[in-house]
Amino acid sequence: MSWSRRIKKLWSKLAEPGALRVLYHGVTLAPRLILHVASLAALASLLGACVSTTQYEEAKSASEVELAGRQRAQAELLVTRTKLDAAQAELDQRSQKLAETEQSVSESKLENSVAVKERDEATGMVDQLRGELARVGDNLRSYAQQKAELEKSLQAAQARKLELERNEAHTVAIARLTRDLTSALGDRVLSGEVSLDVRDGRVVLSIAPELVFNDDGTLRKESEGLLSAVTRVLSVHTDSTLELSLPSANAEQRAPTLLGALSAKGTAASRLHVAQRVAAPLAADPAAPSKPAAAPATNAVELAFSAG
C-alpha cells in the first residue's frame, strides 16, 4: 500500500467518532509518522526525476493534506486536553464538595444524635423534677395542714390560758374582796350579824333589814359603821361595783336612801346599782315564759360586790 493511501485511510479514521482518542494514542507515534513523512518527502524528491509531473503533484497534494490533517488533529487534541483538564478540575471540585457534603451530613447526623440524646436526658430530668415537685407539694400540703391544726390548737390553748388567767385574776379579786370585807366588818361577821358569801362570781354581803332601816324607812345610826366599812372597801377596790338588792316591801323608798348614804361617803353613783327583786313562784310552770335572772326573793338586804 502506498503512503498516500495510508494517509487517506488515517484521515478517514480521524473523521470517525472516537477518532480523537485514536489521535491521542497516535500522538505517541508522531515521531515515527514525521519520520515516515520525511522519508516520503525524500523519496518523492528522489523519484521526482523519474516520475511524471502528475504523480508528483498527487504526492505533494497528499502530503499537504496529511500535514493539514495532522495540524487539525493537534489543534483538536489541544482543545480536547483543555476540556479534559477542565472536566477533571470540575470533577475534583465536585468530589471535594461531595466529600464536604458527606462530612457535613455526618456532622449533622452526629449533632442530631447528640441533640436527641440531650433532649431525652432533659425530658427524663424534667419528669424527675416533676415527680420531686409533686412530692414536695404533697409534703407542703401536709405541713400546711399540720400547721393549721397546730395553730388551731395553739389558739385554743391561748384562749384557754386567757380564760384561766381571767378566772384566776377574778378569783384573786374575789378573794381579796372577801378578805377586805371580812377585815372591815370584823366582829359583825364573826357574830353572824352579817354574812359573806360568794355567789355567781360576786361577793354578797347579807344584812337583816332591821339592822339598816328604821320602821319609817330612814337609816339606823348603827348602820353608820357598816356603810363606812363598805365605802372603805370600795375605795380600795376601785374597779369593783356594788349592786343593792332590798326586800320587795318598801324597796322603792328605801333604795334611794341607802344609795344616797353611800354616795355621801364618797362612792361614785356610777358604781352603785339597784337590782330588781322578784318573788319566787309557788310552783314550777313549764308553760310559763322565761324571765331575765333577778335577785332571789329573800328578806335580807344584800350588797353584791363585783370584781373589776
Description of the molecule:
α2 (19-27) crosses α4 (53-185), α3 (30-47) packs antiparallel against α4 (53-185) and α4 runs antiparallel to α6. The termini are far apart. Among the domains are: 3-101; 186-279 and 295-306, 60s Ribosomal Protein L30, Chain: A (2-Layer Sandwich), CATH 3.30.1330. By secondary structure, it is an alpha+beta fold. It has helices spanning 3-15, 19-27, 30-47, 53-185, 187-191, 223-236, 251-264, and strands spanning 194-199, 202-207, 241-245, 272-274, 301-306. The chain contains seven helices and five strands, in the order αααααββαβαββ. It is rod-shaped and about 205 Å long. The chain has a five-stranded mixed sheet.
Shape: rod-shaped
CATH-defined superfamily of the domain at 186-279 and 295-306: OmpA-like domain
For the record, the CATH architecture of the domain at 186-279 and 295-306 stands as 2-Layer Sandwich
Regarding CATH, which class of the domain at 186-279 and 295-306?
Alpha Beta
Q: Regions with pLDDT < 50 over 5+ consecutive residues?
A: 46-51, 278-296
* Main sheet makeup: 5 strands, mixed
Number of helices: 7
In N-to-C order, the SSE pattern is HHHHHEEHEHEE
Radius of gyration: 72 Å
- The tally of beta strands, per DSSP, is 5
Instruction: Label the structural class.
Output: alpha+beta
Strand order of the largest sheet: 1-2-5-3-4
How far apart are the first and last residues' alpha carbons, in Å? 158 Å
- Average pLDDT, to the nearest integer? 80
- What share of the residues does DSSP label as strand, in percent? 5-15%
Helix residue percentage: 55-70%
Q: According to CATH, what is the topology of the domain at 186-279 and 295-306?
A: 60s Ribosomal Protein L30, Chain: A
